[in-house]
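Example record for the data management plan.
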Amino acid sequence: MFNTPYIFKDPLWFLALLAIPAIMWLRSRRTVPVLIVPFAAAWHRASLTGPSRWPVIFASLGIVLITIALARPQKVEDKREVRTQGYDLMLSIDLSGSMYSEDFTEGGTPINRLQAIKPVIKAFINDRPSDRIGVVLFAGHAYTLAPLTFDHDWLARQIEQINIGLIEDGTAIGDGLGVALTRLEQSERTEDGNKRKGAFVILLTDGANNRGMLSPQQATEIAKERNIPVYTIGAGREGWVPFPVLDQNRNRVGTRRVVSDLDEETLRTIARETGGLYFRARDNNTIKSAFAAIDRAQKIEFQAKSYLVTTEYFHWFAIPGGALFLLAALLTRLNTRASFRTPSSELRTSTQ
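Corresponding structural encoding:
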């Protein structure tokens, strides 16, 4: 909820406005003008009539505006503490060489598995604004691309930049899951000892574990101990699939067919034993089933920090106030010159 009051940070400056009528009263009782403020003596010359009053008016308004500016008018937006519901989600994405397999299509054109999965991942991020989402990449090893964050625009840009070949080749499913679980270790979001509440892992892979320090079974046991469901997604079709042939500069020189080696049994076991679900991503619609499954899970509450946003309006009053004060000084100077030139011209006329 938003509250936007207008306030004065230093209201004591308004006491200075009381000096204006006091100065005017004191000057009316003196026979000889005293320079209390710049050009004030000229404002009260008896010879000045009509237009000579404008400097007084402009200077008074200028003083009022400058005093208001010194009181620091502000608009304060009170961003109150907001409670919202969401998940903590880690995406663990396979970047092994087998992700080059071109068993997906887009507009009738073959695309590889990573190209097919990228828009699904970005849609997943964009469609869940209340979730904190992080990303782990794995191939022969596992690395954290992004910790848990609400900055989904930044996260989507990072996803767009990932490519196959960034990590040494291989498929370390156990390490990919293990690093994701490590990123979900936060004591303030645990209950019943070390069991995590409201956290999930989405594991995307197209192969079988053949590298890494942690086996899928060991990573599964860690997830079970921490009460973290793992939703596994197997990418690609079964059997023989087209695979690009690349030269040393990673330029395409042809196409061959390879056997898809997805270990569906391991992915099913991970999902089943941790309380998640397994999906086979033969097309983009599969991820919608994953979203539905996640939405059915229990939600938790996060608490956003309260903070204030202050907008200063000092310049709105200081600039016109200073301009009026300078205008008053200029008019006073012009009137003073005119008052001195008039007697001299009259003297010359009478002499002639």
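Summary line stored alongside the record: Residues 32-36, 43-49, 344-352 have pLDDT under 50 and may be disordered.
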